[in-house]
Amino acid sequence: MAGSHEKAQEIAFGAIGIGLFLALWEIIGVYRLAGLTWPPLTQVLAFLFDPSRQALFLRASGATFSMAALGYLAGGIAGIGLAALVHMFPVVRPGVDRLSSVIHAIPAIALAPIFIVLINRDFTGMAIAALNVYFVLYVGTTSGLMNSTQNHRDLFTVLGASKVARFGRLDLPAALPAIVSAMKYAVPASLIGAILGEWFGSSRGLGLLMVSAMQNFQIPLLWSAVLIAAGASLAAFGLMTLVERLVYGRFQ
Fold first, then answer.
1. What superfamily does domain 52-251 belong to in CATH?
2. Quick one: which of 215, 217, 194 has its CA closest to 206?
3. How many helices (H) and strands (E) does the chain have?
4. What is the pLDDT of residues 217-250, one digit of tens each?
5. Hey, which bits of the chain come out as E strands?
6. Which of 84, 111, 199, 239 is found 20 to 30 A from 245 (Cα to Cα)?
7. What does the alpha-carbon distance between residue 247 and residue 179 come to, in Å, rounded to a whole number?
8. Cβ distance 148 to 90 under 8 Å?
9. Where are the domains of the chain?
């Protein structure tokens, strides 16, 4: 009962916070407190749900979400895979750690022109999204794989378990909460990477709509694209939060 009450209270406070934010957005827009660049929320929603613009937003959203999803998948496989590799072979960990840190330290805006030269312009967003996701999942997985206790590791050694068996039956299950948490935080990172890549000349996507809207001072179009991206990111983040709770309840 106490747990259910706390969850209900958390949901209520979250809903109140979102409601206050949306109300503040409307007030700022109606009274022009931030100038012409901040339209009222009702005006943005009317523009967004105008039937004549639905095809435009659907095409742009589909392009961005597909690149973000591909980048999320590629970065996730690389991050978890390399984390598993360095855990199984600790001798390579210092080199992989340094390489990952160096790549992450380079601004994505500096890497985008390189990706445009090396791969198709339309896949630049996917590449940046993959790099963003890779680092988050690499750090989360390497940390999570150390969660198993020394006593459990000693027990597996005494029972004659191989490294692979210990990894699959002990280290990986113990790391799942940390991995899922990293996957949750990688969701907005992948979407940001995809949109940023689209700023560098992609032929479609929400990022292209944002750039076009800024260049032509189409403020409702800009805010509509931002609202779609933010809503999708929050929805995916919320879904991963539910998955995280299930995993924590099972494996922690």
1. MetI-like (1.10.3720.10)
2. 194
3. 11, 0
4. 999 999 999 999 999 999 999 999 999 999 988 8
5. none
6. 84
7. 10
8. no
9. 1-38, 52-251
Residue type, 200: F
- What phi-psi label fits residue 35: left (phi over 0), alpha (psi between -120 and 50 degrees) or beta? left
**Distance between CA atoms of residues 63 and 174, nearest Å:** 36
Distance CA 211, CA 178 (A): 36
Residue type, 174: A
Phi and psi at residue 97, to the nearest 5°: -60, -45
Which residue in this structure is represented by tokens 């973000």? 68
Q: Give tens-digit pLDDT for 11-54.
A: 788 889 889 999 999 999 999 998 889 999 999 999 999 999 99
Q: Is 231 left (phi over 0), alpha (psi -120 to 50) or beta?
A: alpha
Q: Report the SS3 class of residue 160.
A: coil
